[in-house]
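TICKET #2291
ISSUE: user wants both folds in one file
ATTACHMENT 1:
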Amino acid sequence: MAKPSLFDRLPVIHQLRQSVGLQRGMLVAGLVLTGLFLLTALLAPWIAPYSYDQLKGPDGNFGAQQAPSGAHLLGTTVGGYDVLSRVIWGSRTALLVIVVAVALSVVIGVLLGLVSGYLGGWVDRVLVVVADAIYAFPTLLLAIVAAIAISGGQSGLWPGVLAAAVSITVVFVPQYFRVVRSEVLRVKAEAFVESARVIGASTNRIMFRHVLRNSTRTLPLIVTLNAAEAISTLAALGFLGFGIEPTAAAEWGFDLNKSISDVAAGIWWTAIPPGLAIVSVVLGITLIGESLNDLADPRLRARRRAGRGTTPADAVAATQPVTREDLGEVQ
């Protein structure tokens, strides 16, 4: 059997080649929605008709709650901002929060999980108790408390992004901590780790060279699901009034909050676009995460192979545990 090319082994390409049927449709739909979100966020300054805080044009003020027209394709908000521009610029704010929140969560959660699982003892007990205590709090309530403590509720773009990201990070760190800790406890009992100790490898080398790289296989799945949750948490914070000032950046949750009174008056164009943006991004990222989770399940791989005409022995072999050689562990 020919060895797959480097292009075929790329993460997204590899998963696409593995997927079939409805699973492939879910993955493709998720990639399309997420790709549109990323392109919109990156190209916001060039595709948005106006700035996120612009209230007037060459002909004067835009006017509040103006219906969709040639000048404003999705109308204007109660504050007099262009709805389409606010939605486009809001994608950039959402992307910034996702990147910062997920990066902080991964770094802090992975390091704490690695130290806790490998060292054990009183360090492990203290970290487990703290993580469980944080995990027991309602997610949104904890994020609100953290946002108030960090920024006092509302602030400018970067202080607001950092406040929202840190508040989301506080919620996500226990998840990464628990996943990595359980994997470290399993990996450190393997023979190759004991061999590294016997030959005199330092603790840091064993932890980061041997244990860590074999304990983070499932992190991409958690990252995608947490990215979707980060969007929801950011929108909830903005909707409740703990987000970013409208003159500092566009934020979907804040705009959705300001459109509540418009809905009762029959003004739909101020609420549907930001709400649809939130739903689309969360749906796209969730579809990717769920598809990757299914593709990581050996039982589903066995069904796919059986459906492609492989022998029963191949299908049974696909359900067997992954060996150290398959994982490519470095001793």
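ATTACHMENT 2:
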Amino acid sequence: MFFDFNSKKPALFLAPMADVTNPAFRHVAHICGADFTYTEMIHSDGFNHDDPYAKNRGFSIGGVPYGIQIVGNDAESIAKTAAGLEGLFSPAAKVIDINMGCPSPPITKTGCGAALMAQDFGTANHPANIVRRVCETAELPVTAKIRIYKDHEKTLRLAKSLEDAGAAAVTVHGRTRGQMYSGNADWKIIAEIKKELSVPVILNGDIVDEKSLQTAMDLTNCDGYMIGRAAIGNPNLFRELKFYLETGEPEIVSVPDEFEIRGADLNQYFENLKRYNLLPHVNVRAHAQWFTKGLPYSREMRLKINDFHKEIKIRHLSDDELSAERESLTVEILNVFDEYAEKCRREFVF
């Protein structure tokens, strides 16, 4: 098994997210308490045609165990990619996860992600047959991340077929493809899947704080809980949830302390980006703005950050030039965080 699900406490997973879960961010999330993290999705067609994306973004800082997520539309292509990636990234890479749930139109229009769930049972590229083919090729355990259908029985059938095909675990996002990220995740169907399967089931969707985590735990008794959008710009959420799981009480943190924690996490993130030559591959300005969400003065901070280096024409820069430009940008952004952290200390006095 790629992860010890026998712990007395449920596992907390960082969801694979495009343009978010690069090695630098995954490492910060791990420091904050995420038990397991996943790469951004790596496209099988790109990898099999020597796209350098995987080599640049698929590694793990410090050899921390993690999962590799593959997106594709063809069982043979995905299996070939799985074999190649485990050769590149073992032993830190512990599992191959197949993306069968991404609802983004640029992904689904090519037959990938959630579009795979439209394949008829028994066809070569039905999710179960993809899992079966990858299990035949890869040495690492294979898992799948799916969404739900409107038809609960069909959803249960799909989940069971993945287990029968050899999936070591199944992650379920409790929304349909058509919902995208709107409405509420349906945890009741995930509870049914948990009762049906003998392999671990990981719940994804709408875990945003201690209350939602506890409600999901009580309702589903899942083996793990995956956090996506709520962790963007806020890896500290894993610290808060870990504190809750250990004590049974939410951690009380003052507004100024929360501000400084967020700034410290952003600083660590930037250090990782610089140290591992990831700056050319990350939109530093956008990521910094995510870290302001929910903080005092967040709008003022975002406006300042947005004005930095606006005149720079990214497409005209080499990777070395882009790294230098973005390293300078990180210094200015951190200065903004320091400025407003001090302002917060002065104005939020108890």
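RESOLUTION: both attachments delivered.
EXTRA DETAIL ON ATTACHMENT 2: The first helix runs from residue 23 to 32.
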